[in-house]
């Protein structure tokens, strides 16, 4: 039904506008008493064999929603009814910011992809915290970043502010230094500044009575040498894991008319590269840390390949938009059948 009726209708409209409309619609119908249970019946696969224990957390299943979809933690309870085992909110910054000028979100239909240059548009971490207080048991990842106006030399302070504000309201943290849409942000992936940032957050974490897992989200555009640096950094800073990968700046093989838009590319063109990065990290580190795999998961096959490459959990974003919530159910059923 989704791919035959709903998606063709949605794709007639501006992607950012239809995103906001969809949020409003899901929120509205989820207030009808039987709708949430209907969604769960349609899409949620309940089975103990799907549960995953990772960095001290129990996930109901290994399929999550990636950051960027519910930036401001406005719909995580409702979205969890579609079968996700966990939901990552953000990227959140200390202060609210509008992000980059519109138009900034583009569908590449013939490539099953999206280009975005949103620029960390969000209402600020404090507003998200208010909504996170209404969590009904959903495992939440808090994806954190810096404000656009904050120079890189002061970026650590932005990440610390988000870390402390979110600490009591999320289950794990994701340090985002890999978005291509905030000027100079990816420079923080260099070994020295990244090590300093992660060490600082670990120090703040160690001051807490009970620590929260910290993960690093990396770009798919890193070289093998840089990926080896990531393995060393994870070991030296003792963070809990890596999310591989964010969007790419590559445009190789695209055919859609919007292919040259500036921004991060997500979706099917990223499938192979993100899996390569997962496999590289898993093999070269001898599976020394957990990996959450994300990037171009549009089918059961894509999901299983990432898990076989070394991912412990996976996340959807663009695949969820193109394929609909049935993809979550299909992946979980396929995992059970293996």
UniProtKB/TrEMBL annotation:
Co-factor note (free text): Binds 1 FMN per subunit.
GO MF annotations in UniProt: dihydroorotate dehydrogenase (quinone) activity
Cofactor(s) for this UniProt protein: FMN
EC number(s) reported in the record: 1.3.5.2
Membrane topology: Peripheral membrane protein
Gene3D superfamilies linked: Aldolase class I (3.20.20.70)
Record flagged with keyword Oxidoreductase: yes
Subunit description: Monomer.
Function of the protein: Catalyzes the conversion of dihydroorotate to orotate with quinone as electron acceptor.
Protein name per the record: Dihydroorotate dehydrogenase (quinone)
